[in-house]
Amino acid sequence: MSNSPKFRRAHRALAWIAAVTAMVWASSGAIHPLIVAIGPKPVTFQPPQTSFEAASFKAPKEVLAAAGIGEASQLRYVAVDGHAALQVQPAGKAERVYLNAETGSPIADADRTRAITLARHYSGEQTAPIRDARLITQFERDYPWINRLLPVWAVAFEDDIGTVVYVDTGSDRLGTLSGSSKRYWQGLFQSLHTLSFIEVPYLRPAAIGLMVGLFFVTTVLGAAMLLRRGSQQSSRRFHRRLAWIAVLPALLFPVTGLFKLLTDELPGQAAPLPPAISTAQLSALPFKAGDGALIEAIAVPVFGGPPVWKTVALRDAKPEVRLSAADGSTIDGGDEALARRIASGAFGEDLSAAPVLISSFDRDYGFANKRLPVWRATGPANQTWYFETRSGLVAAQLGGPYGELKQAQALLFNLLHKGHFLDPLGLTPNQRNLLMSGLAAIIVLMALFGVAIRLRGRREQR
Questions:
Q1: Segment 300-319, tens digit of pLDDT
Q2: Which terminus of the chain, N or C, has fewer Cβ atoms within 10 Å?
Q3: Torsion angle of alpha carbons 68, 70, 72, 76, nearest 10°?
Q4: Whether pLDDT at 420 is above 80
Q5: Which residues are bridge partners to 376 per DSSP?
Q6: Which residues of 325-352 are buried (b: 16+ CB within 10 A; e: fewer)?
Q7: How buried is residue 4: exposed, middle or buried, by Cβ count under 10 Å (0-12/13-18/19+)?
Q8: 67: Cβ contacts below 8 Å, ≥ 6 apart
């Protein structure tokens, strides 16, 4: 214990920085569960089951050529007012256009109308007027990167809580729901917890690293002092008692946070985007008269070959059908064969092992990735990518440069920073979040008592 006076002096010297850091990060971390709790909740996560009746329409390439569309990023047949329409996202553009499948005539304002319909479907709000509906093409303060989907429509309702629903009309998915209170607390969290207001390159991670690093050092010094006999003063005694509870989370929170900060700055391998769909290749219809009611028919882009039509019939009707968009021939092997074809093209070589269907979120492919079902495939250098056969997109990546390090960071962050190590206790997500917020609040309280002790010591010195 001969070093305890040195530890005490160093601990006191860093007390102010540690206190400010605790106020900024622990307090903002404690309010994060509040953001989830106070936001509006979707009434459903399932897209609406609209359908159209299959018929023998013109070849899609003829309809698209007449509309002057030579390449598309996404393309599918969907129902608009009960009739078949070609929904097309022209290459290089964000807003989708809609063409009547029978006549080829454009359907005015159809993408905005579809977005509003989806927003009402997911929110359950059927009567409030629409205040605004705008297309978002990049992530922003109210719609951060964690939501993944782009482009999306932000549909704002004129209601009491300022509901905004973000929807992807290209897949009919929900991005997220937001209310005015949630947006306020989310903005506060981003400003305090991630210092999002600092836009100078490298300055933000440097500032976070310096402050959190000094907080960690202060906590280590304080942990060493816990082993010696405590003071008889009531304020110091209470500070020590709080420290026994807070010392472990006060060590783990900054370590896992810094680990995430550093690994997020590491370069990664960008997944190749699906090739543009050449509309001249779309000679075959994905259905024929008599096929009944269909939900959608999607042109899935494939590397090095023509797109594949994936046609989805109404539930309890015929199974999904996969056809070559060039000649209408059947793609044998179902979705697994399509996943293999997409993955082989993305990796640039044939797969050595069959892709594996992932139908629910797990530790490696978490909820934040949004897309399900997906297929997990392993490529060269043990890279593991997740492919969505509905869009041809790479939904997530594991492996590659620093892949194992990033995977370890994600695991530790979820277990220790978000508290998933408590899951075996059977806690609900809200109970787990409440407990983690309580630990963060204890860190703040411990820091406040430390500041009070420091101020009283200065007064006594005077």
A1: 998 878 899 988 876 555 56
A2: C
A3: 70
A4: yes
A5: 356, 386
A6: bbeeeebeeebebbbbbbbbbbbeeeee
A7: middle
A8: 88, 97, 99, 104, 106
